[in-house]
Design a protein that fits this description.
It is a single chain. This protein has helices spanning about 105-110, 125-140, 145-165, 170-185, 195-200, 205-215, 220-240, 245-250, 255-265, 270-280; strands at about 10-15, 25-30, 45-55, 55-60, 65-70, 70-75, 80-85, 90-100, 120. By secondary structure, the chain is of the alpha+beta class. The chain has 2 domains: about 10-165, Jelly Rolls (Sandwich), CATH 2.60.120; about 170-280, Arc Repressor Mutant, subunit A, CATH 1.10.10.60. The strands form 2 sheets. The chain has a 6-stranded antiparallel sheet with strand order 1-2-8-3-6-9, with helices on one face. A 3-stranded antiparallel sheet has the order 5-4-7, with no helix packed on it. The two termini are about 45 Å apart. This is AraC family transcriptional regulator. GO terms for molecular function: DNA-binding transcription factor activity; sequence-specific DNA binding.
């Protein structure tokens, strides 16, 4: 069980409106205890969470995100959602709920609410303090002060989003980049599994599959096999290593597994490929 962050759980609501355009409706913080997943009711306001400790899963629009300290998520109105902590390291988070005609546009400026519902902020201490200050103002019925802190929160998220936009990377693209780096650096490990890679980049395996197909046009498993085949081609061409040894070096668990994958990729066996190369009958090309 992870250490408790707050030692208590509190949340507050109000029916008062600072403005019809935007008002803080709810604030809170919680050490969340592990539980069985269940479906939350849809909200009629925007609810923004920030994780200050631990890990959990966030489900929205048939997508699953594994999130941890320094990340957060937005639940828009009238959206099916579910979220719960991971056993062994359950999350603690703060949240702030807002409503009003201007809320949608404000979150969209931060890159949230259309197709993206998660974010990351590197300065965890800063964000934690902003959420805490919003709660403090709200608890003293200082709703303008709470709204001011909400604007500071969103301003920080807008800065993050603008920086990401300048870099040309969306969160989903970053997931793919991070997963590709793991695959490239660890493809020689025959025990490397795609579900482990997904866990390390903090997304669910089926979601990683979808974004790989979207941005790379291949599944994570196919990408890994291609990496191994590419390196095997180089070794077949440039070394006299036994084919069984090459299979192990590039991450296959056996010669049989390697030969099957190679045959599927190149329409010939590894030994036939090596022979064709040595006879000048074939110019090797990597599999794209």
């Amino acid at each position: 069980m992870g250490l408790r962050m707050f030692k208590e759980n509190k949340w507050l609501r109000t029916d008062q409106f600072v403005s019809s355009e935007l008002s803080v409706f709810e604030v809170g913080y919680e050490d969340v205890h592990p539980r069985a997943p269940y479906q939350y009711e849809q909200l009629d306001y925007y609810l923004l969470h920030f994780i200050v400790q631990g890990e959990g899963l966030f489900f929205i629009n048939n997508e699953i995100h594994q999130l941890s300290r320094g990340q957060g998520f937005l639940i828009p109105p009238y959206t099916d959602n579910n979220y719960y902590p991971l056993v062994g390291n359950p999350w603690s988070y703060r949240w702030i709920g807002v409503r009003g005609s201007g809320a949608k546009a404000i979150f969209e400026k931060a890159g949230l609410g259309k197709t993206n519902f998660i974010y990351q902020h590197e300065d965890i201490r800063q964000m934690n303090q902003l959420f805490a200050a919003a709660y403090d103002y709200f608890s003293r019925d200082h709703l303008y002060g709470a709204l001011g802190k909400f604007y500071e929160i969103v301003s920080a998220l807008i800065d993050d989003y603008q920086q990401e936009t300048r870099l040309g990377l969306s969160p989903n693209q970053q997931y793919v980049i991070d997963a590709v780096e793991i695959l490239k650096s660890e493809y020689t490990d025959s025990t490397l599994r795609i579900d482990t890679v997904a866990e390390r980049v903090k997304v669910e395996r089926t979601y990683l599959y979808r974004i790989f197909m979207r941005y790379l046009g291949v599944s994570p498993k196919s990408y890994l096999i291609q990496l191994r085949i590419n390196q095997a081609i180089e070794l077949l061409r440039n070394t006299n290593d036994a084919i069984g040894d090459i299979a192990i070096k590039v991450g296959f668990s056996s010669y049989v597994q390697f030969a099957k994958a190679f045959q599927k990729a190149r329409q010939m066996s590894p030994s036939a490929f090596r022979k064709a190369i040595s006879n000048g009958e074939l110019s090797p090309r990597k599999i794209d």
